[in-house]
Automatic annotation (TrEMBL):
Protein name: Flavoprotein
GO-annotated cellular components: phosphopantothenoylcysteine decarboxylase complex
Organism this protein belongs to: Planobispora rosea
Alphabetical list of PANTHER family matching this protein: HOMO-OLIGOMERIC FLAVIN CONTAINING CYS DECARBOXYLASE FAMILY, PHOSPHOPANTOTHENOYLCYSTEINE DECARBOXYLASE
Stored Pfam families: Flavoprotein
GO terms, biological process: coenzyme A biosynthetic process
Residue ranges occupied by any Flavoprotein domain in the UniProt entry: 13-107
GO molecular function terms attached to this record: FMN binding; phosphopantothenoylcysteine decarboxylase activity
Length: 181
């Protein structure tokens, strides 16, 4: 792969425990091809769905899923943008309510405070999508400026947009953020 002509900045890709996380490598490659320096974070259960070694080789950085210990150096540079895909029912609800009991959710809560462009892509079962708390959480995240790619009317097998579509939405969010400055 040829290096991109320009660097867009640092992108956090946060993957949760859903089947699409097994293919998150494709998202990382697409992001790198468009100039992003990618750092992958997973939820504790999401770590079981990804190939951490392959992602580490691809990004040149370790995949993080837990808070660092006080004697460990800080490792993540500040994010210029974030993609949360796939985002589970649990992560969406905890994030929207500020329950930072995992590194991934704590990081999301913190990054929101900086006004960083964030795209969230929920992937969950129909029954969970109909839960009242989930709808309220999506509304809260949107109110806080998160771009949410979720169509509740789409069949469950078609709810996850393509990685290319997710990248388009991210670039749109970043451009919008830059035009507001």
């Amino acid at each position: 792969m040829e290096p991109p002509e320009r660097t867009r900045g640092v992108l956090y890709v946060i993957a949760c425990a859903a089947p699409a996380a097994a293919d998150v490598r494709r998202l990382v490659v697409l992001a790198q091809e468009t100039g992003w320096r990618v750092h992958v974070v997973t939820t504790p259960m999401g770590e079981r769905f990804v190939d951490a070694l392959a992602l580490e080789q691809l990004t040149g950085d370790r995949v993080r899923s837990a808070y660092r210990m006080p004697d460990e150096p800080k490792g993540l540079p500040p994010a210029d943008a974030v993609i949360v895909a796939p985002a589970t029912f649990n992560t969406i609800n905890k994030w929207a309510n500020g329950i930072a009991d995992t590194f991934a959710v704590g990081l999301l809560c913190e990054v929101m405070g900086f006004g960083t462009p964030i795209v969230a892509v929920p992937l969950l079962k129909d029954a969970l999508a109909r839960h009242l708390a989930f709808g309220r959480s999506l509304d809260a995240l949107r109110e806080m400026g998160v771009r949410v790619l979720f169509d509740p009317d789409a069949p469950s097998h078609a709810r996850m947009p393509s990685w290319e579509r997710i990248m388009q939405e991210l670039h749109s969010a970043v451009e919008e953020r830059h035009s507001q400055r």
